[in-house]
Amino acid sequence: MTQSSFQFSKAKELFPGGVNSPVRSYEPYPRYIASGKGASIYDVDGSSYTDYCLAYGPLILGHAHPSMKRALSKASEIGVNFGAPTEFEVDLGSSIKEAIPAMQKMRFTSSGTEATMHAIRLARSYTKKNIIIKAEGCFHGSHDYALIKAGSGALTHGEPSSPGIPEEVAGSVAIAAFNDIDSFRKVIREKQGKVAAVIVEPVMGNAGVILPERGFLADLRELTSENDILLIFDEVITGFRFHYGAYHTQIGVTPDLITLGKIIGGGLPIGAFGGSADIMNQVSPEGKTYVSGTFSANVLSMLGGIETLRVLKEADYSSLTKMIGKMSSELSSVIERYVQCSVNHIGTMFQIFFNRREVRNYSDAIGSDQKQFLRYFRFALDSGIYMPPSTFETNFVSFAHTEEDMGRLISMTEEFFKQ
Ligand SMILES: Cc1ncc(COP(=O)(O)O)c(C=O)c1O
């Protein structure tokens, strides 16, 4: 019996399904990780893996980066949380605002889930309307407003719309299709004057990687503005992923509200939502929309963010992006010698779909062969490559990954198909 299977047998008695987040569960048992360094992680049985999961996104600098050591050591000296304002929140908030000017004002939270939950409440209170439109397959965290036709673990484990959500809440969320502006137009027309906000991931990262088609986000901006509907871009994955800023700052489409998480804490628990001062001033104590948190803007997460953004400001995103572009096309040519596939990639994200067609929305993604993907995932794991265990997730690449690492991913893939 391996140490991992031993730990898992104990964990099953403690945690539902033996895990603390469904996406960590896979057959026959998950590897228990002992440590990580750079692009590698090491399990409790002594095996090492090149990590393309990177804790589902935050670790764009890799594991145990010196910036994180600086943050942790400073916090261990001065304390981790005071439940009172600190200069660190002003520091991190200023860096974010400088990089993402549309976040004129923001509020820190402890997770991306909280960020989107509060942003949706704020949109409803600001517009005095109730309906939210979300795109099927987008994932905005595990709260009641967002777990309707959601992606990520909700999709992998077959519960895109979770039981336990009151009918009244579920009824206030309408669904449209990503990359299909007419589907949004149709829902807005049907809901006549009742729509508070549209929320989307500007690049989908929770049904695999799905890119926005040319003009789709700009059309969404126009459509929402014409109808007095707020546009929320959930940039929990995409914030600071492709360049030093948000995805929307790169494409020149400005939403009304933005949510962030993951990278802005460098691996420590964090989230943030923000937008124009006019909207954000509705948040308490300036306004009446209530948002609070014991751990919001805690010293540790603020320091994690400050140190991470300091490194990212000087980072060479474009070389990394080029390297991943090259790897993705090599990956695609290797796989296509054996089966049809679609390798979607953008910036530091990529995903493989075993699919006969190009994957450009949720219905294409769910047509992918998840069983084949899981065979590939297991082979990768046994070959020392750690990926998220689902085609409905994203592989992430960090600044610690090298061309050699990516070469190994390609030769492992070749080997898988040969066998
Ligand atoms: C786009 C997006 N929004 C929100 C969330 C929720 O963030 P968290 O897991 O920090 O609550 C996630 C999590 O993966 C996400 O991918």
Question: How is this structure best described in words?
Answer:
The chain is α/β, with parallel strands linked by helices. The protein has two domains: 3-65 and 316-418, Aspartate Aminotransferase, domain 1, CATH 3.90.1150.10; 66-313, Aspartate Aminotransferase, domain 2 (3-Layer(aba) Sandwich), CATH 3.40.640. 39% of the residues lie in helices and 15% in strands. It is built from 15 helices and 14 strands. The longest helix is centred in the C-terminal third of the chain and has 20 residues, at 317-336. It is globular. The chain starts with a helix and ends with a helix. Bound molecules: pyridoxal-5'-phosphate. Pyridoxal-5'-phosphate binds at residues 56, 111-113, 116, 139-141, 152, 201, 205-206, 234, 236-237, 261, 271.
Q: What's the short version?
A:
With 419 residues, this protein is of the alpha/beta class.
What's the topology here?
Layout: H1 3-14, E1 33-37, E2 40-43, E3 48-51, H2 66-78, H3 87-99, E4 105-109, H4 112-127, E5 131-135, H5 153-156, H6 167-170, E6 173-176, H7 181-191, E7 195-200, H8 216-226, E8 230-234, H9 247-251, E9 257-261, E10 271-275, H10 277-280, H11 299-313, H12 317-336, E11 342-346, E12 349-353, H13 362-366, H14 370-382, E13 385-386, E14 395-396, H15 403-418
Parallel strand pairs: 3-13, 5-6, 5-7, 7-8, 8-9
Antiparallel strand pairs: 1-2, 2-3, 4-10, 9-10, 11-12, 12-14
Helix pairs in contact: 2-11, 3-11, 12-15
The structure holds pyridoxal-5'-phosphate.
Question: Class of the largest domain in CATH?
Answer: Alpha Beta
CATH architectural arrangement of the largest domain: 3-Layer(aba) Sandwich
Instruction: Let me know the CATH homologous superfamily of the largest domain.
Output: Type I PLP-dependent aspartate aminotransferase-like (Major domain)
- Low-confidence blocks of residues: none
Strand content: 5-15%
Major beta sheet, specifics? 7 strands, mixed
Order of helices and strands: HEEEHHEHEHHEHEHEHEEHHHEEHHEEH
Specify Rg, calculated over alpha carbons.
Answer: 21 Å
Question: Which shape, going by the Cα principal axes?
Answer: globular
With helices defined by DSSP (H or I, 4 residues minimum), what is the helix count? 15
The end-to-end distance, rounded to whole angstroms, is: 26 Å
The overall pLDDT, averaged over residues, is: 96
Name the ligand types: pyridoxal-5'-phosphate
Determine the CATH topology of the largest domain: Aspartate Aminotransferase, domain 2
**Helix percent band:** 25-40%
Q: How would you write the strand order of the largest sheet?
A: 4-10-9-8-7-5-6
* Secondary structural class: alpha/beta
Question: Can you count the beta strands?
Answer: 14
